């Protein structure tokens, strides 16, 4: 049985909803967005992820119309949006602070955008009722924003921005003000709503877990540039740079020099340490500098040297981070390099096999690590 | 006990500085004019004992209040004061709102300076400031000299001793009371609200009407009362700038008190004025309370 996978970015015939074409944005001397070209497709849930000051919010504000690109063009459904003011764009935004109108009730907040379109009273009432139902806010329609909880306010903001059925919905750190548990529930709610309405969502966040959970594609940004834009799985398993590998999840980066061997590259990284092996699609010259990135959960930790794996390093346990479901061991090699290994705590209250200062062996397969240039 | 002490202090203050003087004025308003020191009768005489107190209360009556209704001067003065106060408040709002709006939207580092400039005139005497307006507005004043010099007018304008001069004086004097509450309401406003309104399809002007104005409403109301309430009883500005044409109750009161030396009628005028002012004062208090509830 063939399953249709939602991957318009791999389909050369698909028409992107939004196209950034060589977009640069400068504030005085500061370059916030540096010559970016990329596409976002219809019905995508696209996440812009990066540390604060990386330009992700500027990117969103340009889409909303609050900032204009200094150079380049942004197309929405093939049309240049530069001359269209924010109040005429088929784009709505959910603000980080929610920006609910404090003097208006929940109902009036949601109806605000519809009233601007001069829709009939019945039409407005029907649409607001629909939005209240979608966000499960029926009971709170008459309340003012200061009379409801943070989670409910977040839903009002979402309902208000969806009410006009925009082609594109922008979400600026939409869950930042919620506590961890509520945030998780809301992430799934957001995904459901995105699927139900079929609206294209662009979310800005600095929370990588959030981006990975909700998004169909994640764009990792640094310093005004998108470093990598890909599905969450590919971003995690196949980062294209040390920056992305390091930014998403936990990782150990081992710097060394590569040499072509049979089937895999041989990596020497420190004196007295065994050679490591890694398969890679990226071409390296003999003696070229390389970075081996290994996720901690792909590293096994044993008391004896394993016979079945070529990559085996001996070290001493420096730190143990107990996370409940997982434990992460920080193991120091004799060269001083620290390698992280993670084990699942599958049995309850089991005696831990290893403790601080224990000498252990770390091992992984040739395909576990990814070889990066920089 | 501690709580009681905390509440007692402001109440004692109110009692000593508001209620007691009010009772004294009320008592005078119920007395009759007399050629004596003080110039009214009866006065409370405890040496006569119980009979003296009874005689004192028998001497009080509402004659003066009845008198106020017999002469049109008084109710005309009240109506004229209300009218002048209403128009002056509206004018102050028209001038003050844009100033407050400009201040609230000025760059952060400018705001303390702008605030300072608004408050600065208070550091000089109120009388001197009103006198200097006489110098500006009189027929030979700076304004006329300036306009004549520019050739905009050929005859000097008569502004001093007209209602226009009174309005100029009131707007000038009470402007800070209008600006400060509006500014504080506008300054608290979250700028993303306007972006949200624009994002949802409002033009800038529409967003101003639908968001900025309603959210500064409590500031507007507070500012209007802060101007309206003292303006009704205003005496200095109409006497110095308004000349004989401008009829205001504060001026009538002053004349009754100092020119006619009729303390009881002056007292009655003052009591009626206070009763008129109670309505806006109660409304003002309600507005403040509503504001606190919204913020709480």
From TrEMBL, chain A:
Keyword list, A-Z: ATP-binding, Cell inner membrane, Cell membrane, Hydrolase, Membrane, Nucleotide-binding, Translocase, Transport
Q: Which Pfam families match?
A: ABC_tran, TOBE_2
Q: Does the keyword Cell membrane apply?
A: yes
Q: Name one GO molecular function term.
A: ATP hydrolysis activity
Q: Which domain of life is it from?
A: Bacteria
Q: Which SMART domains match?
A: AAA
Which reactions does this protein catalyse?
A: ATP + H2O + polyamine-[polyamine-binding protein]Side 1 = ADP + phosphate + polyamineSide 2 + [polyamine-binding protein]Side 1
Family per UniProt? Answer: Belongs to the ABC transporter superfamily. Spermidine/putrescine importer (TC 3.A.1.11.1) family.
Q: What is this protein called?
A: Spermidine/putrescine import ATP-binding protein PotA
Provenance organism: Roseovarius gaetbuli
From TrEMBL, chain B:
List locations, semicolon-separated: Cell membrane
Transmembrane parts of this sequence: 6-26, 84-104, 110-130, 166-186, 207-229, 263-284
ABC transmembrane type-1 domain segment(s): 78-284
Please classify the protein's predominant subcellular localization into one broad category. Answer: membrane
Q: What CDD domains does the record tag this protein with?
A: TM_PBP2 (cd06261)
- Swiss-Prot/TrEMBL keywords: Cell membrane, Membrane, Transmembrane, Transmembrane helix, Transport
Q: What superkingdom heads the lineage?
A: Bacteria
Q: How does it sit in the membrane?
A: Multi-pass membrane protein
PROSITE patterns per UniProt:
ABC_TM1
- Provide the Gene Ontology terms for cellular component: plasma membrane
**Which BP terms does GO give this entry?**
transmembrane transport
Family according to the record: Belongs to the binding-protein-dependent transport system permease family. CysTW subfamily.
The molecule here is called: Putrescine transport system permease protein PotH
Q: Which organism is it from?
A: Roseovarius gaetbuli
Gene that produces this protein = potH_2
